[in-house]
Amino acid sequence: MAKVDGAVWVISGANRGLGFELTKRVLEASDSTVVVAGCRDPSAADDLKKLSSSNGSRVFIVQLDVSSPDSVQAAAQQISQDVGQVDVLINNAGTVDPCEPAMVLDISKYSQVMRVNAIGPMDLTQQLMPLIRKGKGQTIVNISSIIGSHGVLEQTLTSDGKASESPFNSWQMAYRCSKSALNMQTQVLAAELKTHGYKVISIHPGMPESDMGQETSSQTGLPTNTLQESATGLLKVIHGLKPADTGKFLDWNGNAVPW
Ligand SMILES: NC(=O)c1ccc[n+]([C@@H]2O[C@H](COP(=O)([O-])OP(=O)(O)OC[C@H]3O[C@@H](n4cnc5c(N)ncnc54)[C@H](OP(=O)(O)O)[C@@H]3O)[C@@H](O)[C@H]2O)c1
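# NAP complex -> structure
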């Protein structure tokens, strides 16, 4: 096992997009922090490999497909052997496909989105819990989305219950339901762990200009923000978390998002 002086962060979906940006910035913020970077295909994770070679022994690349219980279990065992503790878990891996409305949505694809965005994060959290208990950070961050918010959807409905012209109405059915489920998991887990001082939150990262953000922007016409803006904001919020914040749904600027 590696000798670890600083905090250990585990970030899923760390090979590209927001996960990669978070990995870079966590490493930049402290010389002693270690990042376990989860990705589905380490052999193709060229950017992560470069980051790993320029950061000595502070990046551990771990094969992790959050939709596969075998992969999650193997990753947890690997993390236990490599670093032996977890201070901050960022459940970042996510998928938006398919973007279909409810009545035409392919049910098997819906099931897969739920697996990746909701069930996978719960599985990973459960499997890593023994290592989180050994760490000092006691922080679990679920990267969610404002479009999984019931409150925000309600605000886009007119008073007679008909949908307004919001580009998000009736769209991305699978994605929004999966993020709503993730949000409920945040609340339930926060309640379960409350007496132990854990910080469990959901957070909306804005619309970072990752592959997902660019696709969403091209379909809705809504503006993106840079990966750097999202990652910097998220890390500021995460570093400032206190046990009293557990169970909250925040955005990357630290503002509360309605459930
Ligand atoms: N960008 C936005 O506009 C936006 C807005 C709100 C919330 N979010 C959330 O932010 C998080 C990061 O998204 P992003 O914008 O960086 O999207 P992205 O560019 O599409 O990246 C998604 C990441 O998740 C990984 N992933 C997908 N399925 C996986 C699985 N089964 N197991 C493990 N990893 C998997 C991908 O790995 P591969 O390379 O192997 O596919 C990739 O690393 C997601 O949870 C997303 O829902 C994004």
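# post-check
The chain has one domain: 8-251.
The two ends are 41 Å apart (CA to CA).
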